[in-house]
Amino acid sequence: MTMMSRRAVLGLLASAPLVRPGIIRAQTVSEPVKIGLLSDVGGPYRDLGGPGSKVAAEMAVEDFGGSLLERPIQVLQADDQNKADVASSIAREWIDDRGVNVLADGAGSSAALAIQQIARDKKRIYLMSTPISTLLVGKQCSPYGFQFAGNAYALAKGIGGELTRQGGDTWFFITADYEAGYSMQSSTEEFVKAAGGKVLGSVRAPLGTSDFSSYLIQAQASGAKVIGLANAGTDLQNCIKQASEFRIVQSGQRLATEVMAISDVLAVGQDVCQGLALSNSFYWNQSPQTREWTERYVARMNRPPTQYNAAAYAGVMHWLKAARAAQTLDADAVAAKMRDTPVNDFYNAGVQIQANGSVPHTM
Q1: Residues 222 and 107 occupy one common structural domain
Q2: Which of 93, 246, 294, 299 is the most exposed place for a label (fewest CB within 10 A)?
Q3: Does residue 363 sit within a domain?
């Protein structure tokens, strides 16, 4: 080897350590920012959140500009089957092996509680849109957890107190036998009793119940003026259909539900839903802004959005804005920025996130 070639080789070797960090930086910058939605893709809550919430999240990414901190943004979705073990397994694998930067959605509250624990352990922000349990912002709240849809407390306040004041002062509950159902019932009972009403009884129905006849017979026999339906999704739809067959509303009792969306009305039929009382934080035809966003959403999903789809958009958009303002994906820094910055979009107008991660709503 000539002296000149030896010098060239030594020069390349000496420069290699200087070149490598630049390559690593380029690879890091080109790696997508990953938003991972854990959802009910094929189960009873599919139409509440499900594929529609992935579309809503993708719309938020597009409206934001498609990149964050000079990195493209990728939206993932997996079916957590409303099961805590499935949800926690996917969340852990996404963070440890796939580099997911933020978790979103959650579907059933039992799955959401498991996701929240993984997010807390791994220091990842969790943007909840479908889960409504008050435990998520109560006893089991997390510095990284944010609940963007109206929760069980907000939904119950609009139904329990108001119907009781209107004369519906005795209640009987048909409750989904899991955390969200318990949260809905206990929250509603609080407002019923505060308004001077009484709870005459309740029954619990397992998730996925198709025959509600025995529960409805007990509700009728109780003589309660209001039958509260503390369930959601296809369970709620089946319960309403069968209540119509029993002619419960026509017989003088009222039906009241907390977690009902426009997708449920479309599935069951407007005539069957006639006389049902409900509370919500979002309606597609509420304002010019909601109508404009809904038009874009319907072009992709061929059905109007629910409050949980709107919450998926709001959560992702607010996280993106906060990360851009903080100039980092660090969960602590971004969470602080999210709390400091009011939530502004077609769904929220200058809403300040509470210390426990709850996003308040006008119901």
Answers
A1: no
A2: 299
A3: no
Among 334, 292, 340, 288, smallest CA distance to 313 is for: 292
Scanning the structure block, which residue is given the tokens 């719309």? 59
Query: How far apart are alpha carbons 337 and 236 in whole angstroms?
Result: 38
Mark out the alpha helices in the chain (DSSP H runs): 3-30, 50-64, 84-98, 109-122, 152-156, 162-165, 179-194, 213-222, 233-245, 262-268, 270-273, 288-301, 307-326, 331-340
CATH assignment at residue 82: 3.40.50.2300
Range of the domain at 334: 32-150+286-351
Is 194 inside any structural domain? yes
Q: Are residues 123 and 167 in the same domain?
A: no
- Structural domain contains residue 26: no
Cα–Cα separations (whole angstroms), residue 18 to 12, 15, 114, 248: 10, 5, 44, 77
Nearest Cα neighbor of 229 from 210, 254, 257, 202 is 257
170 & 107 share domain:
no
Residue 187, Cα to own-chain centre: how many angstroms? 18
DSSP notation for 19-43: HHHHHHHHHHHHSPEEEEEEE-SSS
- Residue 161 CA to residue 64 CA, distance in Å, equals 39
Using a 10 angstrom Cβ sphere, with 0-12 exposed, 13-18 middle and 19 or more buried, the burial of residue 160 is buried
* pLDDT tens string 61-103: 999 999 999 999 999 999 999 999 999 999 999 999 999 999 9
φ, ψ dihedrals at 147, nearest 5°: -105, 110
Are 194 and 129 in the same domain? no
Q: Apex CA 85: angle with CA 82 and CA 89, to 5°?
A: 110
Query: CA–CA separation, 2 vs 210, rounded Å?
Result: 85
Mean pLDDT by 10 residues, the chain (363 residues): 42 43 49 97 92 98 98 98 96 98 93 97 97 93 96 89 94 93 92 96 94 96 96 94 94 91 91 89 94 98 96 98 98 98 96 97 89
What six digits make up the tokens of 199? 């709870």
